Amino acid sequence: MSQRSRLTVAVVGATGVVGRTMVQVLAERDFPVGELRLLASGRSAGRTVSAAGRTIEVGEAVPEAFEDVDIALFSAGGDVSKDLAPAAAARGATVIDNSSAWRMDPAVPLVVSQVNADDLEWHEGIIANPNCSTMQLAPILMALRDAVGLDRVVVDTYQSVSGTGAEAVAELEGQIQAHVAGAPKAAAVYPHPIAFNALPEIDVFLDNGYTKEEWKVVAESRKILHLPELRLSCTAVRIPVFVSHSEAVHVQTTRPITPDAARALFATVPGVVVQDDPARHEYPLATKAAGRDEIFVGRVRQDPSVDGERGLALWVVSDNLRKGAATNAVEIAEALVGRDWIRARSRRAGPVGAPA
Amino acid sequence: MSQRSRLTVAVVGATGVVGRTMVQVLAERDFPVGELRLLASGRSAGRTVSAAGRTIEVGEAVPEAFEDVDIALFSAGGDVSKDLAPAAAARGATVIDNSSAWRMDPAVPLVVSQVNADDLEWHEGIIANPNCSTMQLAPILMALRDAVGLDRVVVDTYQSVSGTGAEAVAELEGQIQAHVAGAPKAAAVYPHPIAFNALPEIDVFLDNGYTKEEWKVVAESRKILHLPELRLSCTAVRIPVFVSHSEAVHVQTTRPITPDAARALFATVPGVVVQDDPARHEYPLATKAAGRDEIFVGRVRQDPSVDGERGLALWVVSDNLRKGAATNAVEIAEALVGRDWIRARSRRAGPVGAPA
Questions:
Q1: Interchain CB distance below 8 Å, A158 and B198
Q2: Is A355 a domain residue?
Q3: Nearest to A166 by CA among A291, A19, A22, A46
Q4: Residue A233 and residue A284 in one domain
Q5: pLDDT band at B344 (very low <50, low <70, confident <90, very high)
Q6: Could you read off the pLDDT of A17-31 as tens digits, one per residue?
Q7: Strand B48-51 vs strand B54-57: parallel, antiparallel, or unpaired?
Q8: What CATH number does the domain containing B30 carry?
Q9: B96 with B167, same domain?
Q10: Which of A9, A113, A130, B159 sits between 20 and 30 A of A279, alpha carbons compared?
Q11: Distances, alpha carbon B99 to alpha carbons A38, A102, B127, B184, B251, in Å
Q12: Averaged pLDDT, A91-120
């Protein structure tokens, strides 16, 4: 592949947990990166990041930094995205944004790669990457929607601290060390100690008593699945796990389905792996999903509290930094390249991804 | 109170986590103990346990050890209870058994003190103490059953390792120390490391795909609440917490109820404390519930996925060693004393709990 057919890719928030994973996933998946531009706040600019065997200096994320960028992967928080995504898009970049800033904007597609990549067609420069808790659930719900219809879904989450960011990982680590040393556990990132605890508070509280995280699962699932009336309830809980979110899912379907049929169905979904052999203690596990790009589903069983074989109980686990964030963002970029839906500048640069 | 009006109390499994808590709760609540007989397997017999300022030697749990015992609190596993509870009852003791051995026996009352103490009336020498996950849920469900009726309940649990026993507490502690030391994490009590993980396997798997722990919540709730057809689904998950179980609960009620009305209702239930001030980050927490005898409920909100204000989402936390096991067992003993329902021998000894 010639340098001309390669893309200029910017990663905004490149020093963060998700940003660093984005850089790693781009390299692992051999995405056709020509120039890789790592950007961050002025505070982090000047630092260096090792990526694909090179050491790259981090530049400041300002509008001018997006000149000649084809694809900009944002993971620097909602405020940065609100400010800079339009500036990047105005310069011809296609923005894939991991914050919540644009997700519910009707003009912005919200895409899980294996669920609704067709929504990429109507993007106008900004594409939203869903929240990690929603991400791993959507392909499972899509499969059930298409096969037997969705009536109601209850999801309770067991979320890792890396979903909050590097400072939360450090806080858990510090509390663990304090525990071993017999010292008090200081909490600053979270309102209470996360070590040896379960915190039913992720993101801010809304007027309806749900947290914003819980409501994201509701609203984003509806948008991604094209089911604006989907009935879904969620309790989102942070637990002392470093990487991977786990979810207990209870689905009421419109038509009957057996656990065997559900397992066979899930096995057909790209990027989904069925792990369901209780006799051998095999089921999705946070520690085993960490570092993997797939969504793992298991503990599939008929829920007898729903009549007529229309209930399923499931356990769904995925690496929140990868499929829950970085991997899906790169998959969106791949889909754009594959369908030639990158915007103006990259089209000017000739066919993207064509052999040299 | 004279020595004669006091009771001879045996604690079986006195060296275990729950057994030690039983000894502690008996002392804290000033239960009218005359002689305290601590019993355990032959392996643990001869050890000493400190209780109420005294050091007591642990005797071997054999049938003869229950001679002259009024109340025997068992927490030594199902096999010990199956063997020895009938032997103790045959000698006139009233057994309050914390194992799962007798819970579903139609001739054995299964009692949560503030829910169905009236069931104690038909005991024939053995009374079962419910599973910890069921225990903390039952008073909440009772209140809703009585006020607005129960249609369907979904419960996902976040359970602490102390529910497994002292060896599981040591295993988590060891894995945490290994993490800090950079050493590998050995798992023996659980099939996978529990540190920084969420294990969706508690107790053995049943043919229907549920674990026995999950099915206990279903079957025991039905028996305690006198609702043999109650529709309930549960996923039971072990997380790296030392003490207290947390539960995300989603209730469909028969008639409408608002969150305000639900909070007011819960506040009337003995032993239940409403903690629900999200603006101040106040909600039930495992670390804060540890060492307390109450059941804490919060995050009360309308579940909009159920029509007609018939849905509630809740977060329920309680110390699994106390209300989930030891405290309820002692509360049952108190209820028996208060109602003069201790069996033959104690009646022979004169009015129980009467002033000297």
A1: yes
A2: no
A3: A19
A4: yes
A5: very low
A6: 999 999 999 999 999
A7: antiparallel
A8: 3.40.50.720
A9: no
A10: B159
A11: 59, 53, 11, 34, 28
A12: 97
Give the per-residue pLDDT at A341.
79
Adjacent-strand bridge partners of B84: none
Digit-coded pLDDT (tens) for A225-270: 999 999 999 999 999 999 999 999 999 999 999 999 999 999 999 9
Q: What's A249-311 look like in SS3?
A: EEEEECCCCCHHHHHHHHHCCCCEEECCEHHHCECCCHHHHCCCCCEEEEEEEECCCCCCCCE
Q: Are A249 and A340 part of one and the same domain? A: no
- A184 shares contact with chain B (CB less than 8 Å): no
The number of C-beta contacts closer than 8 angstroms across A and B is 164
Contacts of A313 in chain B (CB under 8 A): 209-210, 233, 235
pLDDT at A343: 61
Is the confidence at residue B148, as pLDDT, over 90?
yes
Cα B185 to Cα A8: distance, rounded to the nearest angstrom: 43
Enzyme catalytic residues of B: 132, 245
CATH number at residue B314: 3.30.360.10
Domain extent at residue A152: 133-320
Chain B residues closer than 8 Å to A193 by CB: 287
The answer to whether A100 and A78 are in contact (CB under 8 A) is yes
B86 and B173 fall within a common domain: no
Which pLDDT score is estimated for B343? 61
Residues B157 and B173 in one domain: yes
The answer to whether residue A132 is catalytic is: yes
Both A83 and A167 in a single domain? no
Chain A, 135 to 174: residues with Cβ < 8 Å from chain B are: 152-154, 156, 158
Is the CB of B198 less than 8 angstroms away from the CB of A156?
A: no
Per-residue pLDDT band at B355 (split at 50, 70, 90): very low
B205 and B189 together in one domain: yes
Q: Is B85 inside a domain boundary?
A: yes
Number of structural domains, chain A?
2
| Chain B interface mutation, best of A250, A277, A282, A300, highest count of B Cβ atoms under 10 Å | A250
State chain B's mean pLDDT as an integer: 93
User: If contacts are CB pairs under 8 Å, which of residues 48-77 in chain A contact chain B?
Assistant: none
Asked whether the beta carbons of residue A248 and residue B241 sit closer than 8 angstroms, the reply is no
With CA atoms as reference, the chain A residue closest to B303 would be: A233
* Residue B346 predicted with pLDDT over 80: no
- On the question of pLDDT at A184 being above 80, the answer is yes
Using CA atoms, how far apart are residues A197 and B158, in angstroms rounded to an integer? 9
Least CA distance to A176: which residue of chain B? B176
Range scoring the smallest mean pLDDT among B50-54, B111-115, B346-350: B346-350
Average pLDDT, chain A: 93
